[in-house]
């Protein structure tokens, strides 16, 4: 080590410079560590804050959605079922016994018809809350049924195809997935003005994929995130909160040919209880 | 044949044990265990080569370098970890600061100690002064570590209290 073979003043200078250099380096590293950690902690807090705000938006959206749903049911019952039953009551009033037999029969038939209508109405409300096909036959049948009904309206061509649904999702997962599909289809029908809507299902070892294609005006992932953060897009927020519960992923894309949009929903498979 | 400087392996073992306890990750513990025998090999070589009045330079320098590197690893590992405790409010941090100051400050002193034997008394005084300065600095940091109190910042306290996000969330849940 040539640099060590030096005279007294050289040693002194070398040691001073060396020690100063090493100490400066050590202090520099310590200062860097302190400031960097402060920055990391600050960023963590900001991320947590954003996450909490997002959760709050989703929570508010789901509460608002619940309230709207309750209002809709209340309106259906009050405006439709209420008058029907009131009319039936009018037909079956106390004067019925004083009427002629033919008139009595006519009143009873009319009342029966009105009560049948009320039953059908209540059944419709009940089905809209919980589709019986989903409850009895599962997601595949309920989705296919939904798409057939949409296609049957003649407004849009709607098809659904399940490629591998031998291994079913859990009942509570199926309900949430069905609601997500319903909401997505509803959005497509309301906003996209598309000519067709097609749903496909595929299975992977650990997850289930549902993909919706349509040729109308759709949204991209960026727009979805933006709408999710804003006060608008209640339906989308509901989808996001349901996806949160499902621990799944949703992505909105436009085809490279720009001819159709696709929405992919990925749901993790959970072991059956 | 040099005198056996027993304090060096003793000091090395204590320090090694301290760092062994300091690290949580297994890979660093294994690294420490792997690097210990190398010190004893160097110590043995020093013992064979050095005369009675000389310091065991190679093993001491190895010890200094190893602990400096371990401290750096510890600090960077702490920075990477997701923690809500500020690093300078922990005792371990100030221990590490005092050691890194001591090791880096005295590195050149150990490196030049053999060469400086032939130096003038003025130079020797200067070297001793530098050594003393670094040692006092180390002891100051040690004392500082005693007074450091660990504080953790629960995240909810730091999330913009004006917006009351958490309160709103709790209210909505109830």
Write a compact overview of the structure shown:
The complex is a heterodimer of chains A (273) and B (174). Chain A is an alpha+beta fold and 273 residues long.
Q: What is the topology?
A:
The complex is a heterodimer of chains A (273) and B (174).
Chain A: H1 8-91, H2 101-129, H3 132-137, H4 139-152, E1 157-162, H5 171-192, E2 196-203, E3 207-214, H6 221-229, H7 234-246, E4 249-254, E5 261-268
Parallel strand pairs in A: 1-2
Antiparallel strand pairs in A: 2-3, 3-5, 4-5
Helix pairs in contact in A: 1-2, 1-7, 4-5, 5-7
Chain B: H1 7-22, H2 26-49, H3 57-80, H4 91-112, H5 121-147, H6 155-158, H7 165-173
The order of strands across the largest sheet of chain A is 1-2-3-5-4
Q: Estimate the helix proportion of chain B, in percent.
A: over 70%
Spans where pLDDT lies below 50 across 5 or more residues of chain B: 154-174
- Nearest-angstrom radius of gyration of chain B? 22 Å
Q: Number of helical segments of chain A?
A: 7
Q: What helical percentage do the residues of chain A reach?
A: 55-70%
The total count of strands of chain B amounts to: 0
- pLDDT averaged over residues of chain A: 85
Shape of chain A: elongated
